[in-house]
Amino acid sequence: SDVILVYCYPKTIITRIPECPYGWEVNQLALGGVCYNGIHDSGYYQFIIPDLSPKNKSYCGTQSEFKNPVYHFYNSIVSNDSSIIVKSQPVNYSFSCTYNANYLVNQAAFDQRYVFWECSSPCFQHRISLIQKLCYILRVATVHVKNGSSGSFESQLSLNFYSNAKFSSIKEAPFIVETSEIGSDIFAGVEAKGLSDRFKVVLNNCWATPSSEYFYQIHWPLITKGCATDNSILVHENGKTSRATFQFNAFRFRNIPKLSKVWLHCETHVCDSEKFSCPV
Fold it and tell me: What is its subcellular localisation (predicted)?
C-alpha cells in the first residue's frame, strides 16, 4: 500500500496507487483533497492531471514552482471520509514531477561540396588547372535534420526550416541551396509541440558551426542573449508562443574540407508564462 507510480509526460501527469490502500475505496480518495476523479484500472487506482495549465490555473490543487533550471509540479492523493467514524488509517500519497527548462537543440543544416566539371565552355570567369583544365561549381547543398536536446521535454522540441517568412509550411529536408542562392533568406524556428499552453519557447543563443560539436572553435553566432547578432539576421518571434522563429542569409564557411556540414545549435529555454514575462 506504500507504492506510488508517477508518470511525468510533457503535458500530463498520471499517478497510480495500489487498489484499496488500507481499505480505502477509489471514491474515498481525492486528488489534491478536492477532486474525486480516480478510476479503477488493473489493480490500481489511477488519477490524472490532464493539463499542466488548465483554465483555473491549478488542476485539483496542483502546485508548481521554478528552481532554476527546473520546474516542479506537486500534488497529493488523500483519503476523505465524511462519516462519523473513521475505520481505516488515513492516507496521503504526495508526488511531484520535475521538468528541465533549458535544452540544446542541434540540427545539421548544409552540406558544403565542391563539384568539378570538365570545361568545354566557361562556367566561371576563372579556371583552375589540375591535371587537366577544369572549372568548379560550388554548392551549399543538402539540409539534414537531426534534433537533439535533454530533459523531460526533449521529444517535443524540434528545429525546423520553413518555406517563407509566414512560417506556415515546413520545408522538407533535404533541400539544396545553389551557389547563386548564397545570401538568400533561410527561415528557421524551434517549436515545442504537445506542451501546455503556459510554456513558451525562448531562444537564448543560436550559432552555426562546421562540426556537430556545439563548442567547435569555428562558429558564426546568429542569436546572442535573445537578440540578432547583425542586420542580416531577423528574429520574428521569441518567447511569445510555443514556437520561436528567425531568419538568416544562406552562407558557407571558408577553407572547409571538400565535403562537410554546417550545423545549427540553439540554446532553448521553455518559459512558464504564468510565472514570468517570457518575451525577450
Answer: Secreted
- 149 CB-near residues (< 8 Å, 6+ apart): 103, 104, 105, 106, 157, 268
φ, ψ dihedrals at 47, nearest 5°? -125, 135
Percent of all residues in the chain with a pLDDT value above 90, rounded to a whole number = 43
Q: Answer whether residue 152 shows pLDDT above 80.
A: no
Q: What is the pLDDT of residue 122?
A: 39
- pLDDT score of 116: 35
5-8, strands of its sheet edge to edge: 5-8, 13-18, 44-49, 39-41
135 has which bridge partners?
A: 117
Cell of 280: 525577450
d(CA 230, CA 241): 24
CB 105 within 8 A of CB 268: yes
The cell for 103 is 535544452
Contacts of 169 (CB under 8 A, 6+ apart): 162, 163
Tell me the pLDDT of the chain averaged across its residues: 79
Catalogue all structural domains in the chain, each as residue range(s) with its CATH number: 5-100 (2.60.40.3210), 102-272 (2.60.40.4100)
Tell me the C-alpha distance between 216 and 209, whole Å: 7
CA distances from 192 to 42, 85, 102, 135, 268 (A): 33, 50, 13, 45, 10
Reported as a pLDDT band with limits 50, 70 and 90, residue 125 is very low
DSSP 198: T
User: Residue 128, Cα to own-chain centre: how many angstroms?
Assistant: 45
> How high is the pLDDT of residue 263?
83
